[in-house]
Amino acid sequence: MKVKQLSLIFGLALGVLAGCAGTRTESIATLTASPQVQEAATVIPAEGIRRLVEGNTRFVSGYTLHPRQNPSRRTDLATSQYPFAVILGCADSRTGPEILFDQGLGDLFVVREAGNVVDNHTIGSIEYAVEHLHVPLIVVMGHERCGAIAAARDTVAAKGQAEGHIESLVAAIRSAVEATAGQDAEATCKANVRNVVLALRTCEPLLRRMVDEDRVKVVGAYYDLDTGAVTFMEGK
Ligand SMILES: [Zn+2]
């Protein structure tokens, strides 16, 4: 059922992401690396989603390929990189993007913070990937039973304050907690993902401009710890 669900959502994602072809042609002329690396540099958002869905389907089924993790790939990437997607994920040890999307070296530009929240450092990292590496797809991925989401929900419910710098995570997630009062943690997690997606899409000056120019797409996703399945959330 999860695979069918993935296919359905993938179809929706393709619809959402349609019309973005040809947005990376400016980077192709400067490439000197292997054909595989050059191919990665021409990926459009819909193709990036397809690769992620296919890799996650392999992960769910247990038939992973562990692609592009050999010495040849390492050599290809020694002086350059052309990842096809940014994954903004949680720091949770169970949610490593290369593993659950069955991708290889140089495929994903991964930024991780507990609760997959953003601050100036993470936004700067993402801007670097988009502006300098021409990555056309940003995926904000929350997950089931996220400790940061739980901490935020508990802290808000207790009208208290989290310990140390954990409070900064609570502050970032608070609006999602308040918007999903009376609902479960999954609803809070998905609300937080939507908040972060919107924050990135409207982040001045760089990301907003690139989104408006269709040079990058920002989409949300949710990872199910039990099944291993990632579902992509419908974007606008
Ligand atoms: Zn988490």
Describe it:
By secondary structure, this protein is α/β, with parallel strands linked by helices. The chain has a single domain (about 1-235), classed as Beta-carbonic Anhydrase, Chain A (3-Layer(aba) Sandwich). Helices cover about 50% and strands about 10% of the residues. The chain has helices spanning about 1-15, 25-30, 35-40, 45-60, 70-75, 95-100, 120-130, 145-155, 165-180, 185-200, 205-210, and strands at about 85-90, 110, 135-145, 215-225, 230-235. The chain has a five-stranded mixed beta sheet, with helices on both faces. A hairpin with a 6-residue loop joins strand 4 and strand 5 (about 230-235). Helix 1 (about 1-15) packs antiparallel against helix 4 (about 45-60) and helix 8 crosses helix 9 (about 165-180). The longest helix has 17 residues, at about 45-60. Mean pLDDT is about 85; it is low at about 1-35. Zinc ion (ZN) binds next to helix 8. Zinc ion (ZN) binds near residues 115, 146 and 148.
Defining key terms:
single chain, 236 residues, alpha/beta, Beta-carbonic Anhydrase, Chain A, 11 helices, 5 strands, disordered N terminus, binds zinc ion
**Which structural class should the secondary elements be placed in?**
alpha/beta
Write down how many β-strands occur, each being a DSSP E stretch of 2 or more residues. Answer: 5
How much of the residues is beta strand, in percent? 5-15%
Uncertain segments of ≥5 residues (pLDDT<50)? 1-33
Overall helicity:
40-55%
End-to-end CA span? 25 Å
Average the pLDDT over all residues and give the rounded result: 86
CATH topology: the name is: Beta-carbonic Anhydrase, Chain A
Largest sheet: 5 strands, mixed
Order of strands, widest sheet: 2-1-3-4-5
- The 3D shape can be described as globular
Output the radius of gyration.
Answer: 18 Å
* Fourth-level CATH superfamily: Carbonic anhydrase
- Helix/strand order: HHHHHEHEHEHHHHEE
* Subunit arrangement of the protein: single chain
By DSSP (H or I, 4+ residues per run), the number of helices equals 11
Total of domains: 1
Please name the CATH architecture: 3-Layer(aba) Sandwich
